[in-house]
Amino acid sequence: MKRIIIILIVAFLHNIAFSQTFSAETEKYYKDLSSYLNGISKIKSKDLLKEFEDAWLEGTFTQEQRNEVYKTSNAIVAKKLKPFPDLSNYLDAIMSFQETGKSVSEFSKWHETLNKVLEGRNKKRIQSYIATSKGLFADNTIYQSSSTVWKASNNKYHFVYDKDPYIVFDETNLVCYSKRDSSVLYKTKGTFYPNNSKWIGTGGKLTWERAALSKDTTYAIFKDYEITMRSAGYTVDTVEFYSQYFDAPLKGK
Predict the structure, then answer these.
(1) Rounded to whole angstroms, how far apart are CA atoms 221 and 238?
(2) CB burial class (10 A; 0-12, 13-18, 19+) of residue 211?
(3) How many CB atoms lie within 10 A of CB 12?
(4) Does 252 or 153 have the greater pLDDT score?
(5) pLDDT given for residue 1 in this prediction
(6) Do 82 and 74 form a contact (C-beta atoms < 8 A)?
(7) Helix (H) and strand (E) counts for the chain?
(8) Residue 159: left if φ>0, alpha if ψ -120 to 50, beta else—which one?
(9) Closest by alpha carbon to 113, among 192, 174, 184?
(10) Which of 17, 42, 77, 167 has the fewest CB atoms lying closer than 10 Å?
(11) How far apart are CA 60 and CA 13, in angstroms?
């Protein structure tokens, strides 16, 4: 009997979680959101809702941005994604976006790509794209795993959707942190494809200052290259290596 009751309670909560619709009115939206998240976990919701309350009710969201949020948060629930971390990651993302200095049109462009992703069937890709957006807006993190983190040195990027989403980066320093070490590819450009965690780049300068080699005499100049960001390595089509020990640069791959 107890087992049946537990099953019924779980089923009831499951139906509540995936039948929620958020109001398209500022204060009512926050109340709906609070009721929904607190119904899942008051512990997880407490700090998030406090931060979001300040940002949503007293912050700088325009009406255009609010309309995007109403649409997308309802789509996230309708897609039966998880309140934690998927919806919570989305809320963190929009709050962090407001701190980036990016425009309302860029907010809309990001949502345009996100809503197209939400139309897909692959939930893992949707979850990954939301998490990627959160990290990017928070501190320019492009990719993060338990062993490797890739970051850009600025937020000069824009979102594109053409069959799949991708993020185009203007000139930046691309930083990799892995196994208590780090490397920097200076003044490079590239495109990140979240679905396969691949970066396709062009240009850049790699130095070995951490090995006590001067950045002015020992360095490599990249042409076209690829990075599978799950690891810390590069695949370079053409590279020129400069060193004080060679009269001319060494060219290779």
Answers:
(1) 9
(2) exposed
(3) 10
(4) 153
(5) 54
(6) no
(7) 7, 12
(8) beta
(9) 192
(10) 42
(11) 34
The torsion angles phi and psi of 46, rounded to 5 degrees, stand at: -55, -60
Find the range with the poorest average confidence among 123-127, 128-132, 168-172, 234-238: 234-238
The predicted-structure confidence for 159-199, as pLDDT tens digits, reads as follows 999 999 999 999 999 999 998 889 999 999 999 999 999 99
Q: Considering the entire predicted model, what is its pTM? A: 0.89
Work out the angle at residue 76's Cα, subtended by the Cα atoms of residues 92 and 128, and round it to the nearest 5 degrees: 65
Residue keyed to tokens 């976006």? 97
Mind giving me the DSSP string for 192-228? EETTTTEEEEE--EEE-GGGT--TTTSEEEE-EEEEE
Q: Residue 238 above 60 pLDDT?
A: yes
Tokens read off for 131: 């998490």
38 contacts 50 by C-beta, under 8 angstroms: no
What is each CA distance from 139 to 23, 150, 212, 230, 245, in whole angstroms?
31, 11, 28, 19, 39
Work out the angle at residue 182's Cα, subtended by the Cα atoms of residues 222 and 128, and round it to the nearest 5 degrees.
85
Task: Tell which residue, 48, 24, 18, 9, has the closest CA to residue 123.
Answer: 18
DSSP 79-120: TT--IIIIIHHHHHHHHHHTTTT--HHHHHHHHHHHHHHHTS
Integer Cα distance of 135 and 171 in angstroms: 19
Closest CA to 244 of 212, 217, 226: 217
Given a cut of 80, is residue 217 above it in pLDDT?
yes
Cα–Cα distances in angstroms (integers) from residue 146 to residues 127, 136, 149, in the given order: 17, 17, 8
